[in-house]
From TrEMBL:
BP terms from Gene Ontology: peptide transport
Principal location listed in the UniProt entry: membrane
ABC transporter domain: residues covered: 3-254
UniProt entry keywords in alphabetical sequence: ATP-binding, Cell membrane, Membrane, Nucleotide-binding, Transport
Protein name stated in the entry: ABC transporter ATP-binding protein
Amino acid sequence: MLLEVRDLHVEFHTRDGVAKAVNGVNYSVDAGETLAVLGESGSGKSVTAQAVMGILDIPPGKIPQGEILFKGEDLLKLKEDERRKVRGAKMAMIFQDALSSLNPVLSVGEQLGEMFIVHKGMSKKDARAKAVELMDRVRIPAAKERVGQYPHQFSGGMRQRIMIAMALALEPELIIADEPTTALDVTVQAQVMDLLAELQRELNMGLILITHDLGVVADVADKIAVMYAGRIVEQAPVHEIYKAPAHPYTRGLLDSIPRLDQKGQELYAIKGLPPNLLAIPPGCAFNPRCPMAQDVCRTDVPPLYEVTESPVPRSSACHFWKECLHG
Ligand SMILES: Nc1ncnc2c1ncn2[C@@H]1O[C@H](COP(=O)(O)OP(=O)(O)O)[C@@H](O)[C@H]1O
Ligand SMILES: [Mg+2]
């Protein structure tokens, strides 16, 4: 397995108390595989990814428990310099906002070339040629002519392609894309997502795609992990989840996708708000918002049940996964 996160916990020590942002996350992604991580804002998707990348703010962040195995080696046990090597060469991250991730005073060619100068000891000239090659690879038109331009001279979609090029530069084995298309308009979103999926297949990389948009993952993901209040509440191959969710929260997310055939109708929204992480409700964290909640949901934290009716590995942290699956 390329990456395996086991029982990961992350907390933030704040003036108001301890915010439990990640509460025992387990997920894995193999070479050539795409895992989509889904959930409302604040569910711990980015914090989990930052822990994997080794870019978490510690302090205030803390990892009291868990393992992050990269090809079997626990990254949490590495010294910072070893960790930095893995982060630079073996895994890369793509963020939502290219404009704040790219350096405004360096040309795109200089920034892409820098990767090859620093990590591969290339000459400036060779690095520039590599930069053009990468820009071609992410299909930026007229790469040779534009390599000397600055980030602000590119459109949002083109800038996101440059971010993808930066991430691909050292041919990482794992890419984490954190809401990579959220800031783009819809048609450009699809193009960038298609490009990312294509490159991932071509280079046989593992991809963790973080998004709050179930609509975009259907075509590109192999499996889905749904997060709520720092836990994974459902995990399944992508087609299984679309057929029938085994958790009421997933059902709520699915029902909130805008559908072309229901134009004009009011969009369904899950009622209520995600919990305060300083005071996660007892029992199932979703219970105050759940249309199926019973007494047991208010007292007992549901374990991650194996969905035994599924022919493929699948799990749900709902006491009533069966009812949900058949509902
Ligand atoms: N540096 C930080 N200090 C304190 N709390 C943080 C910090 N970073 C994230 N958090 C908290 O962790 C929770 C999960 O955040 P995040 O993983 O970013 O959610 P999302 O699922 O939207 O990516 C949020 O409630 C957020 O406020
Ligand atoms: Mg986030």
